[in-house]
Description:
The chain is of the alpha+beta class.
Amino acid sequence: MFTQDDLKVFILLFTDDAVLFAHTPEALQYLLDDLQYYCTTWKLKVNTNTTNIMIFENGRHMTHDFLHNNTVLEVVKTFKYLG
């Protein structure tokens, strides 16, 4: 049996919106690569024009390029989920 403290959320899904969560840039890129594999397998497309990365950090600013289907995703400071 596991407790709520053991639960880790890596993705939120609602109709055609999704949010991926990761603790490191490498982990996020891994999730993006898995998403691309899934999309390729099921012949789905992600609109990279409306796909954004938001970084939550304390005190320092990370510079990292995140890719989906060989497209660099925009890093933003705010976004609206489900709206």
